[in-house]
Amino acid sequence: MPRTTTGGDGTPVPQRLLAAATRLFAEQGYDRTSVQEIVEAAGVTKGALYHYFGSKDDLLHEVYARLLRLQQDRLDAFADRDEPVEQRLREAAADVVVTTIENLDDAAIFFRSMHHLSPEKNKQVRAERRRYHERFRALIEEGQRTGVFSPETSADLVVDYHFGSVHHLSTWYRPDGPLTPQQLADQLAELLLRALRP
Questions:
Q1: pTM value?
Q2: Which site from 3, 20, 86, 95 is most exposed, i.e. has the minimal number of CB atoms within 10 Å?
Q3: Do domains 13-52 and 56-196 have the same CATH topology?
Q4: CATH class of the domain whose range is 13-52
Q5: Cβ burial, residue 64 (10 Å; 0-12/13-18/19+)
């Protein structure tokens, strides 16, 4: 068991390993990054990596899981607010765009490398993502039930439409482009709501 849990800068070892793995996976690809490169970049031993994560596969899973946890917590907060459903959906739809852009390496790594996960981890990730999509869909269904949104398009299709855009951000979004993350998020959220209005 590793004796120290932080590095010279006070950063906990798990965070150092995740930061190193994220950078290397983004630069080189998951399959071309070795455990040795990760531990050297993090300044820790292989024993430390295996203590905290068990495997490179676990690191890949955590890269995505931490982003999904953040987004799930934020979605739950938006969904639970005492505001009109259109406002809650708009904020949730924009937020997932902004948080994805803020963690673009994580999102890019995951969608390029998800097929490298073990079947068990792959199943776990799909369940976690399904929970997020179900909570988002519930907002759409609430609006459809109460007449705020048109029921003509199924909530499932609307969810797929929005998250198709979100999942591809890493392939085309550039920080030096014409739109800030928030501007882009607001425009995509407005497209979503326009598709739902009666």
A1: 0.85
A2: 3
A3: no
A4: mainly alpha
A5: buried
